[in-house]
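Dear colleague,

Thank you for sharing your sequence with our group. We've completed the structure prediction you requested, and as agreed, I am returning the results in plain text so they can be pasted directly into your records. Please verify that the sequence below matches your submission; if there's any discrepancy, let me know and we will rerun it promptly.
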Amino acid sequence: MLGPVILAASRSDRMRRLISAAPVTKQVVDRFIPGETVDDIVPIIEELTGRGLELTMDVVGEDITTPEQAAAARNAYLELVDRLTELQLGERVEMSVKLSMFGQALEGGHELALANVRPVVEAAAAIGTTVTLDAEDHTTLDSMFAIHEELRKDHPQTGCVIQAYLFRTEADARRLAGDGSRVRLVKGAYKEPAEVAYQQKHEIDKAYVRVLRTLMEGEGYPMIGSHDPRLISIAQELARKAGRKPDEYEFQMLYGIRGEEHLRLAAEGHRMRVYTAYGTDWYGYFMRRLAEKPANLRFFLRSVISHG
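Please find the predicted structure tokens below.
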């Protein structure tokens, strides 16, 4: 399996230098990360919302080593809120944040991350939108869930992400499926040990369906993060059986992957949100996109060969 190899490479400084230096890399990265600045991304926001889609925006970057870098990440999101205010698109565009960007891994990181993310959540609420806390590797999750619980005291619409491949996730889903919750379910894109996570695709898919059933039968708002046609069909059937209306759940897919499917689902009346990343520190995000799906890796390799 190439996925674990690619995920290991995502942590390698040597591989980062090699891939970043390849002339073709920027062209391929642009497929998944369509800009580096807010100015770059505004036309993308306007185009996608104009086509009936909703968005969740992610400022990429995870290798935070100082409190100053964490504060800069916070400010980047606040700048995004300012632009969404100008565009009057707050109700169509939410934000996704990784707490590692807000200093979670630093000394006193739990409190630092909470202090940095809170003003972003408050600013988002002021323009009618919200923030979803992305899940990272399993060692960070207790902190993420605790911050999520704290933020929901004042901003109950704050969402979080759970990962189907982790053994703990079925219990997390039962706990999170209450009234007013917003939970995005994904398969998982970090290299996790066999002691905490399923390793085989068929096991992960079965776990995904079990967790999704829990969310659909709960009282919260499920967000289906998947490009898998079979899982999308299953999600629609589970929603029907649970008596959910089209505005009581949503699909989420990554920018640059299955764009026609985004439009098809929206045209059928589903809420369809496009996870759109931007920023200069793209390497870790890009490598996980390659690891998640063989077609992404084939696309990258074909581009390298054709430009060699």
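Summary note from our side: The first strand starts at residue 54 and ends at 59.

Kind regards,
the structure core
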